[in-house]
Amino acid sequence: MFVRNWDEKLLSDLAILMVFVRLLLYSTIGNVIDQQDSVYTKHVCLSTSVCLVMIVVVLSTLVESSDCKSLDICEKFKCFSPCVCIHLSLPAGDRLCSTEDCMPGTGVYLRHGYIYSSLAGYVLRKNEGEELPVISVVRETEAQLLPDVGAIVTCKVTCINPRFAKVHILYVGSTPLKDRFRGTIRKEDVRATEKDRVETYKSFRPGDIVLAKVISLGDVQSNYLLTTAENELGVVVAHSEAGAQMVPISWCEMQCPRTHAKEFRKVARVQPEYLQA
Amino acid sequence: MVCLFDCVILSCFYVIIHLVYKVGDVLLPGDVFSFQMPESITDSKPEKVVCGPGLRRNGDEVLVCKSGILRHKQPNLYWIDSQQRRYVPGKGESVIGIITSKSGDIFKVDVGGSEQASLSYLAFEGATKRNRPNVQVGDLVYSQFIIANKDMEPELVCIDSCGRANGMGVFGAGGLLFKVSLGLVRRLLAPQSEIAKDLEKMFPFEIVVGMNGRVWVKSKTIQQTLIVANLLESCENMTAQQRQTLFRRVADGSI
């Protein structure tokens, strides 16, 4: 740990630092000692100055080997010892390469001609033709796809209400999401015609898989607002009360193959090429 | 009597035994019978069979879901008559509820189901935003369900589709509320109910019967009210004859 992050620049910095501190101490304490005429005290001063410097060096390596989060510790340390603050604002984070080899991307920062990482994650090096490759650090190797306004999402109904239905968004387009986002389908957004005579119980049930479109991202507290007011949107997969998967028979009815009971849903008109036999 | 005869089928992998079921037999959940009418019964053709409560179709078979007695009504309706005391809300049923709390525009009503139903204060006859109905916590209210399913909170109203009360609303100053089984309630509410006719001969009283098993009775004196309540509770497990003898004894004044 002591030698890992050592490099020439740092060594030179510390060497200058030690000389500086020693000179300081000599100048202040030496004046006092001259009057007292004691070799012993001079040796004491020397050793104390060396000790001080070594303490400073050890602290600096400790600070350097820790990551970005302890930058505030570095800041606190700075204010306690103003005389060493010039060179001890050390960067936290692993050193990746020098600026001559790569260009900095996201999650990294530049310091003294070197690129350091500011995140804990994976290093990504992208070659972009004739320019230098771009180096960046990311937490996840795949980027999270967020539902955007106008995107078709696949969601599962969790709870229904006479006024709206709450859903969990599972897929955006054909990409599965790692976390489940929450969405709301209001009563008036269920279908395009006769919006006021919609009954949520006859359109969705808990457990249905629904294709919907995002109309709004919502505020801080509210969920995504979704709509199914198109022919291609609505319930795709639903289970009957007997537990069997139902077969759609019209835009508003589905039938259970076991009990032959019909149930009301707002059924999506799926394009034939997406249907699997 | 319509008899359904089935054969014992033995196959290499499993054994299916179809029992002989007659209308009036006691059946248990899981019993299976298929409708294969023998040719001896000439008046019933292989026609559409309607499954009533307690029966469910499973492919080509009919499964029994509730324990009870198999009943039949011409031409093709079969159902299971079951004893039950726990009420499950159903749409369109009229029930007696007890107001438990008021929150904003909604009353919470206890109907004896798994959750409390909500009743909006605008769902009374002649109620507007300014003219609020006079309903307090603890009142009895006779209302019917407009939303009652397993996925949503049940909702009640005290008006019908035209906006008239039609006998619904708050009631119950005085009188006695008690609980009976759902089967007895259905028998009381049947069009030609013998129990109701026998009771009418005794003495005048007011009665409200809710499909959730709750009955409210009020008569001129407390004693008569209690007599009616006790009679109703006791005639649940009696045959018609036992009931009539009991009523006669009470009417004569021997009890």
UniProtKB/TrEMBL annotation, chain A:
Give the CC-aspect GO terms: cytoplasm; nuclear exosome (RNase complex); nucleolus
Q: Name one Pfam family in it.
A: ECR1_N
Q: What is its main location?
A: cytoplasm
Q: Which SUPFAM superfamilies does the record match to this protein?
A: Nucleic acid-binding proteins, Ribosomal L27 protein-like
Q: Where is the S1 motif domain?
A: 148-229
Quote the CDD domains the UniProt record gives. S1_CSL4 (cd05791)
Family under the similarity heading: Belongs to the CSL4 family.
Can you state the subunit structure given in the record?
Component of the RNA exosome core complex (Exo-9), composed of EXOSC1, EXOSC2, EXOSC3, EXOSC4, EXOSC5, EXOSC6, EXOSC7, EXOSC8 and EXOSC9; within the complex interacts with EXOSC6. The catalytically inactive RNA exosome core complex (Exo-9) associates with the catalytic subunit EXOSC10/RRP6. Exo-9 may associate with DIS3 to form the nucleolar exosome complex, or DIS3L to form the cytoplasmic exosome complex. Exo-9 is formed by a hexameric base ring consisting of the heterodimers EXOSC4-EXOSC9, EXOSC5-EXOSC8 and EXOSC6-EXOSC7, and a cap ring consisting of EXOSC1, EXOSC2 and EXOSC3.
| Protein name, UniProt field | Exosome complex component CSL4
Say which species the protein is native to: Oncorhynchus mykiss
Question: Taxonomic lineage per UniProt?
Answer: Eukaryota, Metazoa, Chordata, Craniata, Vertebrata
UniProtKB/TrEMBL annotation, chain B:
> A GO biological process this protein is involved in?
U4 snRNA 3'-end processing
Q: Which keywords are on file for this protein?
A: Cytoplasm, Exosome, Nucleus, RNA-binding, rRNA processing
Indicate where this protein is primarily found: cytoplasm
One Gene Ontology term of the molecular function aspect: RNA binding
The Exosome complex exonuclease Rrp40 N-terminal domain covers 52-86
The record places domain K Homology at: 175-222
Where is it located? Cytoplasm; Nucleus, Nucleolus
Key word rRNA processing present: yes
Q: Which Pfam families match?
A: KH_6, Rrp40_N, RRP40_S1
User: Could you give one GO CC term from the UniProt record?
Assistant: nucleolus
Return the PANTHER family for the record.
Answer: EXOSOME COMPLEX COMPONENT RRP40 (PTHR21321:SF1), PNAS-3 RELATED (PTHR21321)
Family statement drawn from the similarity comment of this UniProt entry: Belongs to the RRP40 family.
According to UniProt, the name of this protein is Exosome complex component RRP40
